Amino acid sequence: MELIIKREIGQHEEESYIEVPFEMPAGVERIHVSFVAEPYGVAGRVVNLGIRDAQRMRGWSGGARTEFYMGTEKATPGYLPGPLTPGTWAVLLNPRKIGENECSVILTLRFEMESPRWLKGELHAHTVHSDGAHTMREVERMALEAGLDFLALTDHNTVSQNFAYPKDSELVFIPGVELTTRFGHCNFYGVEQPGDYFLTTSFDQAKAYIRTARERGAKISLNHPHCRNCGWLWDFDVDHDWVEIWNGPWRGDNERTLAWWHEQLAAGRKLVAVGGSDFHRAQPDVKHGMPTNWVYAESKTVQGILEAVDRGRLYMSYAPEGPQLSMCAGGWMMGDTVSADAVEEGIDLVMSCHGLQACDSIKLLTERGVEREWIVETGCETMELVVLMEDRLFYRAEIHRFFAEAGQTQLVLACNPIYIR
Questions:
Q1: Which of 43, 122, 189, 243 is the most exposed place for a label (fewest CB within 10 A)?
Q2: Are residues 150 and 253 in the same domain?
């Protein structure tokens, strides 16, 4: 949405503060404001710029800028991010010098609306704030070069990274920390300081940290729980939201967690699966977004992304350029629960797959195991598969591919289920 407003400024208005009111629509994720003053090229003319919402000033850049943006989480320096509440706002103009004649200020307001979209990103990465080899700016550059939209900061047993990330980045940085103990690791997302004391030598101490993090609003994921070197050796009944079934390159440890996760689903549990590269330093097979979390979020914000993950609206692909998948049944999608009545009346499960290669194997799984399998033919990069849903607990999909350089077939995509009530 775009709004253009023209405001004539006379000589008598020099040194005054002029409010140019506008209505902030509902559902705005980010606003961009710019202006030009006509006639052009008047020497020494200065028009200062700012903005207010219905309650307070939200920013002022004086004559230093002719444009700025504000979002719910980020803004141009000099402006405050925060809620873009619907109502009457005003752009503030302060003409210091306009010349001998009046001038026209033409404001352009562009509203970027909240709207569901697929975002891809990283949920497990480290920096120089713990044992990673790269600075925040280096991590930002690599993530953006990979085409990622978001990156979670999960340095070991510290929170300094959550206060040091580049605030002017187009990348959404998700605050986090990896609680790292001798008996297992888990990630906390969404709060800058999930706990105060990370030194845990007992399960009771670990649970106390987890309890504090929960009280502060953190989302909790168990990391690489079946890793032979640093798996989860404590009780699985510990409070958590998600489980990392895919850590770094696909390997046997991930296979064991995938099998465990499937058992949980088959037992009737709803548990969100996530992936993470566990990036520490650049290597040929360890890069940001390997695997990539594709998240169907309502907004490109920390809150929007974490809410989408928590709803299970997520699938994992082995790399940013890997295969893509959408899976829906009527108005439901992955992470949602289809009513049993809809299944009884007859409803199709529709899977749209993209970025396929010849001989890829697409598997549709339920609690009964693999129910359908399709082998991709040469030249068939996109497939739409339709299956009549039956009385099951859930449906989920996997895609497998043979890699000649590895000499084996590996998982290249896994999605969270569509459940049936």
A1: 43
A2: yes
The pLDDT of residue 200 is 87
Q: Within this chain, do residues 104 and 144 fall inside the same structural domain, yes or no?
A: no
The DSSP call for residue 214 is H
Q: Say whether both 105 and 122 belong to one domain.
A: no
Q: How far apart are the first and last CA of the chain?
A: 39
How far is Cα 332 from Cα 336, in angstroms, rounded to an integer?
6
Nearest-angstrom CA–CA distance, 234 and 182: 10
Q: What is the pLDDT of residue 168?
A: 84
Token readout for 133 is 């080899």
Q: Domain boundary at 67, 88, 113, which? A: 113
CA–CA distance from 260 to each of 106, 225, 257, 324 (Å)? Answer: 61, 10, 5, 24
Q: Could you tell me the CA-to-CA distances from 356 to 326, 374, 379, 412 in Å, in that order?
A: 13, 12, 9, 10
**Tokens coding 124:** 């497990």
* DSSP one-letter string for 331-377: TEETT-EE-HHHHHH--EEEEEEES--TT-EEEEEETTEEEEEEEPP
The residue among 380, 385, 397 whose CA lies nearest residue 350 is: 385
Q: Are residues 108 and 132 in the same domain?
A: no
106: tokens are 């033409």
Q: Tell me which residue of 286, 288, 292, 295 sits closest to 248, measured CA to CA.
A: 286
> Residue 133's domain is classified under what CATH number?
3.20.20.140
Q: What is residue 99's predicted lDDT score, i.e. its pLDDT?
A: 66
Which pTM value belongs to this model? 0.90
Domain that holds residue 159: 117-420
In the predicted model, what is the mean pLDDT of the chain?
Answer: 95
Based on the fold, state whether residues 191 and 67 are members of the same structural domain. Answer: no
Q: Are residues 108 and 189 in the same domain?
A: no
Residue 39 pLDDT greater than 90, yes or no:
no
Q: State whether 69 and 210 are in the same domain.
A: no
Asked if omega into 39 is within 30° of 0 (cis), the reply is: yes
Q: Which of 64, 91, 113 lies at the terminal end of a domain, its last residue?
A: 113
